[in-house]
Amino acid sequence: xxxVWNLPFTSTFKCRAPIISAPMAGVSGGLLAAEVTRAGxxxxxxxxxxxxxxxxxxQIKLYIEASGKPTDLAIGFIGFSSLATQSQWENYDYIxxxxxxxxxxxxxxxxxxxxxxxxSNVELAHSYGSKVLAQVGTLKDARxxxxxxxxxxxxxxxxxxxxxxxxxxxxxxxxxASQAAQISESxxxxxxxxxxxxxxxxxxLAVGCQAVSIGTRFWACEESIGDETLQKELIKENxxxxxxxxxxxxxxNNEISSIKWPKPYDSSGVLRNKITDDWDERxxxxxxxxxxxxxxxxQYKAERGQTTSTAIYAGEGVGEVHSxxxxxxxxxxxxxxxxxxxxxxxxx
Length: 348
Known about the structure:
The protein is of the alpha/beta class. The chain has helices at about 10, 30-40, 55-65, 80, 85-100, 120-125, 140-145, 175-185, 200-205, 215-220, 230-235, 250-255, 275-280, 285-295, 295-300, 325-345, and strands spanning about 20, 40-45, 45-50, 75-80, 105, 130-135, 150-155, 160-165, 190, 210-215, 245, 270. Helices cover about 40% and strands about 15% of the residues.
């Protein structure tokens, strides 16, 4: 029989184990969410920028078919871009009303108010019975999320992969999560950033967290829908030294994308490559100058998809990810490792 974790988080979110697979845009589809959920975790589908509702609905249907658990649906949204227009607010309402997700997650920012004076993203979700997870990178934003009555706060450290606060604006995972847990009266705190092994989960529990949110480890799973060439880079001989949080990719991508990541979220945890070698330690004005006065942007566009010049999102825990496996087995192994770490500590 599987262990049922006895934590306010697991009872609030009706999941067996305190492990979330993070909603990674372009990676976290219905199948990945279904396998994590089947194994007892909280598996998220990424709505990303929420521009194409039919794409999201296709992933929701995949999730329902694969999991058989429509009431365990969980969807993650990017705050600044998902609810930028009234029609997106209507689409958000439609998704909540039609599919009644158990949980929604927001980040960048995690609290979004409706310009037309309607309910906020949190209030609207609550009106349909959905729980809300707010992902933050500072204690100030954690406090704001608590004031808005969210159901859990994900503390994302700067060692995380993918988008997050700029390195000078953010905090490390354990310091942020520990201090958020100190000030939280009843809101469960979830740690995110650099967590790829059970021993990391045990350390999060030790500082007062009630769950963890894991990205990189679940990107390196068979069910993820990311680019396989980039995915393979995750399991090469990497260490934390090979990961950097940089604004270089966002500065480049904001030039060519219709959706531009705003400061202070215009920063990504990635594997080092030619782009970071060339630009990360130089002022952004140098990169902007090269964009304006050379063929750098054309070259960047032409090389998109190549590992030397594409953002390969990865957190600092990637050094302990060595294989691409199924998400179901991955979750059970993480859980097993967590219990072993706790047992080991008891014997000291």
